[in-house]
Amino acid sequence: MENIKHVFFDLDNTLWDYRRNANITLVKLYEEFQVEEKYGFTFKEFYPFYYESNEQLWADYRDGKVTKDELRARRFPEAFAEMGLPNFEHALEFERRFVDEVTTSNYVVEGAEEVLEYLKDKYTLHILSNGFEEVTHSKINGSIVKDYVQTITTAEGAGAPKPEPLAFQTSLDKAQAKAEESVYIGDDWIADMIGATRMGMHAIFFNPLNENHMWIEEVPVIEKLVELKEYL
Ligand SMILES: [Mg+2]
C-alpha cells in the first residue's frame, strides 16, 4: 500500500487478546461463585452461552440497537437464562466483577509485538475501539500496546460506534491524519472494514479464525498479524 502515514488498529481480538483474557477472568469468577457446585453446569457448558450472548449484544451495540448500559445489564443474565438458570442471583455481580477484572490479564494476539515493532518506525500508530473508555485505556496501559500507539479513540468517547463515520472521523481528527493516508486493521467486517472503506481509508481484514466473510477487491485478508509486513 502506498502513501500510508497512519495505521489505525481495532483493539479487541486484533491486538488485545479478548477471547483469551476474558476466558481467564470468567473461569475465575465461575469458580468463585461456585456455579458448577451449586447448579451442576460446567464452565465448558456455560461458555458457549456467554459467547453467544456477548457476540450478539456487541453486534447490536455496533448496529445502534442497544446502549452500553443495556449491553452490560443483559450480557450475563441472558447467558445464564439461556443455559437454564433464569434466576441466577449473581448475574449482575458477574458483570460488575468481569468488567473490573478482565484487564488483569493482558495477553496480546500472537504476533502483535513483532508487528508493532516493525510498524512503529515506518508509521504513526493509533487505536480506534468500540470498547468503553475506561476499560479500553486499562487494556492498553496494562499491555505492550501502550508503548506503540500515539492516539486512542473509543466509541464511547466519540459518541458513536464503528462503523459510523463519526467514530472514524473523531479518530482521524485526533491523529491529525487524512483518510487516504491511513489504513485500518480490524477483525469485524461490518464495524471495521465497511466503516473504514466508506471513510476513504485503506483497510486490511484480520480473520484469525478463518470465518466466512464478505469480500471487497481492495481489502486484503490476513489470518496472522505478521502477514501485515507483506502490505505495510
Ligand atoms: Mg475486534
TrEMBL record:
This protein's record includes keyword Hydrolase: yes
**SUPFAM superfamilies for the chain:** HAD-like
Q: Which Pfam families match?
A: HAD_2
Q: Which residues cross the membrane?
A: none
- InterPro entries linked to this entry: HAD-like_sf, HAD-SF_hydro_IA, HAD-SF_hydro_IA_YjjG/PynA, HAD_2, HAD_sf, PGP-like_dom2, Pyrimidine_5'-ntase_YjjG
UniProt keywords (A-Z) are: Hydrolase
The GO terms this record gives for MF are:
hydrolase activity
List the protein's name.
Hydrolase of the HAD superfamily
To which species is this protein native? Moheibacter stercoris
